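User: Quick sanity check before I run a bigger batch. Here is a single chain. Can you write out its predicted 3D structure?
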Amino acid sequence: MMEECEKTRLVLNESIKELWKIIDSPKAGSKDKTKSITLILNIIKETHAILDKEIGIMRSKQYNGLLGSKFL
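Assistant: Done. Predicted structure follows.
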């Protein structure tokens, strides 16, 4: 699960880079720039959700490690 989260975050980061190219382009219209900014904001929200999942997984592993296999 952690690997999937990391791969997804990498893809999302690359998407943000591509969207910034549109925003920085003098050829892009204001609608395209606005759409790109909106997409970046949505990607950031999704990235935070993924990070929350990763934190939950790590905490679960740490908690299970403290209890040991006796209770699993």
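Helices lie at 2-24, 30-67.

User: Great, the batch can go ahead then.
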